[in-house]
Design brief:
- With 397 residues, the chain is of the alpha/beta class.
- It contains 16 helices and 13 strands.
- It has two domains: 204 residues, Glycogen Phosphorylase B (Rossmann fold), CATH 3.40.50; 178 residues, Glycogen Phosphorylase B (Rossmann fold, 3-Layer(aba) Sandwich).
- The strands form two sheets. Strands 3-2-1-4-5-6-7 form a seven-stranded parallel beta sheet, sandwiched between helices.
- It is globular, with a radius of gyration of 22 Å.
- 46% of the residues are buried.
Length: 397
């Protein structure tokens, strides 16, 4: 099938290192692996850092970049809204030239181009919802109600919508989406890239001097909502019981890394933290392999973070907060350990349980990888999305 992937959100550099960037890139690659022709139309291909090493940001699939206006005179809202017209016409041209058969679209702030294409061209279309950006970008918006109306238009017009977890699905329905159009489809992971590997594990542990340490890992950004500050509190609690542990923190912008290093030193915990900063995506799996356990300290209430699936696929036992999106992917005591959200002492206790029970760790890790391979590999998501496309084809008048 010939598929056009729309990513109108200029905050998602497709070849960048954000979690959202990885999501777009990996799903496009998964479609390719299954034999489909994919063309990505995006508002931003690579982050500003690409200028320093352009070869590292060459997309592995056909991609067209169409950047929005940067004019400050227009304002944040109008810049986003006016981008719909050039994005729509660029997409329409690609559809005509490549004889596109279906559209896959990432839900975007003021992103109406996909809705217009769907109404005019009657192609099978799936809209992937990860968050309501009118809420996430509230402080930047001058006309938040306008942004919400645009989102609602997309929700009401989409023939198929996916939500990463039940809370997001419920809000989509409350805002006008048709009940039979909304489906839960969590994010996924490349189980060929993320897998247990003792050679990679030992190489990273040797380089970072982690031998004879119990390594607790975290992968992702260091923004406040990730719960990073709570890791310092957990370390202080763990230190009362054991001292042979270290938190390996993989990811984060340099300014956030420096801030967290300063915080660790201020509390006398600097020997229990290693911050790698942001790494090229192909280097992340080896660093997860180096971990003995991993944690999701916090997340957004309506999602299930990709890092959890990366931990599971790598055969690393994990602890995570009991949000609905997490509980649908992890059974407590089976594929990992759950703790009450935002409860630092309980989170530390789960980590201590993993530290003191190596046999249980191994059992959890085996079950976690088995489940993620069966339910949350990218190939599973591709199969589901193709089913939505085929159902729409079959229901055409």
């Amino acid at each position: 099938m010939r598929i056009l992937y729309l990513c109108q959100d200029h905050g998602v550099p497709v070849m960048g290192q954000k979690g959202s960037s990885t999501h777009v890139r990996e799903f496009a690659r998964a479609l390719q692996k299954e034999g489909h022709d994919v063309h990505v139309l995006c508002s931003l291909c690579a982050p500003a850092s690409a200028a320093q090493n352009p070869d590292a940001f060459i997309p592995p699939f056909p991609l067209t970049e169409l950047r929005p206006s940067r004019s400050k005179l227009l304002g944040y809202d109008l810049r986003n809204y006016l981008h719909n017209w050039p994005f729509y016409y660029a997409a329409k041209r690609i559809i005509s030239e490549l004889r596109i058969e279906a559209i896959y679209e990432r839900f975007s702030l003021y992103g109406l181009a996909g809705d217009w294409l769907g109404r005019r061209l009657l192609l099978p279309r799936v809209v992937e919802g990860n968050a309501f950006l009118s809420r996430e970008h509230r402080t930047k918006l001058h006309f938040p109600q306008w942004a919400e109306r645009c989102e609602n238009q997309v929700l009401r017009g989409a023939p198929a919508l996916t939500a990463v977890a039940e809370p997001l699905r419920e809000e989509m329905l409350a805002r006008g989406a048709r009940p039979n159009a909304v489906h839960i489809l969590p994010t996924a992971v490349d189980t060929d890239l993320f897998h247990p590997d003792s050679e990679r594990r030992n190489a990273v542990r040797d380089r970072l001097h982690l031998q004879n340490k119990f390594v607790i890992g975290y992968v992702g950004g260091l923004a406040g909502w990730h719960g990073i500050s709570s890791l310092l509190d957990m370390a202080a609690i763990l230190k009362e019981h054991r001292t042979d542990f270290v938190f390996l923190i993989v990811g984060g912008e340099e300014r956030h890394v420096r801030e967290q290093e300063t915080n660790a030193r201020a509390r006398g915990l600097e020997t229990h933290f290693i911050f790698t900063g942001s790494l090229p995506y192909p280097e992340v799996p080896a660093h997860i392999n180096a971990m003995d356990a991993a944690i999701v300290p916090d997340t957004l209430p309506w999602t299930c973070p990709t890092k959890l699936f990366e931990y599971q696929a790598s055969g690393v036992p994990s602890a995570a907060p009991d949000y609905p999106g997490v509980t649908q992917a992890l059974t407590d005591g089976v594929e990992g350990l759950l703790f009450p959200k935002k409860n630092v002492p309980e989170a530390a206790q789960r980590l201590l349980t993993l530290m003191e029970n190596p046999e249980r760790c191994a059992e959890i890790a085996t079950r976690a990888r088995a489940r993620v391979c069966a339910e949350h590999a990218w190939s599973c998501n591709v199969k589901t999305v193709l089913g939505f496309f085929e159902a729409q084809r079959a229901n055409r008048p």
